[in-house]
Amino acid sequence: MQKKQHGKLYLFMGVLLVIVAVLGIFFKSVQPENEAHKEAVRLAKKYAHLKKEDAFYRYSRDKTFYTVFGTNADNQKIYAIVSKNGKKINIYGQEDGISAETAKKAVRKRQEVKKITNVGMGMKGKTPVWEVTYLNAYGNLCYDIIAFKNGDIIKTIQNI
Q1: Do the beta carbons of residue 78 and residue 48 sit within 8 Å?
Q2: In the chain, what are the domains?
């Protein structure tokens, strides 16, 4: 009888240990992203006078960028695109280009999209761009790079 109770206790402790380990790994893995988010917001407040954050985007192609979308001190909607190292920040008004929603619509118009998996904003060279990743009708991962200023599709990669 006591062996059964010890067995259940060991099983419970083992399961608990696995859960704690998995949670620890998860929180450790998202920590760099959280730090990047905080730093991008800090820089957007400093250089773009961000007052209110509405969205955060991550873009990783040739280089990594973090973009903060929100309202500045003059109540204008802005995008602050911050390089991964934080040394370069590009600021654009919302009226200077297309929104994330418009970028998604542009992809849906051109492609057979089963599901959009992510939208990010960054820089391709000196051009601000949206990256829309999605699953096509066959379930394959694809992405389109769309120019922020005019909505033109710059690059499409199908069936990754």
Answers
A1: yes
A2: 2-96 (3.10.450.40), 100-157 (3.10.450.40)
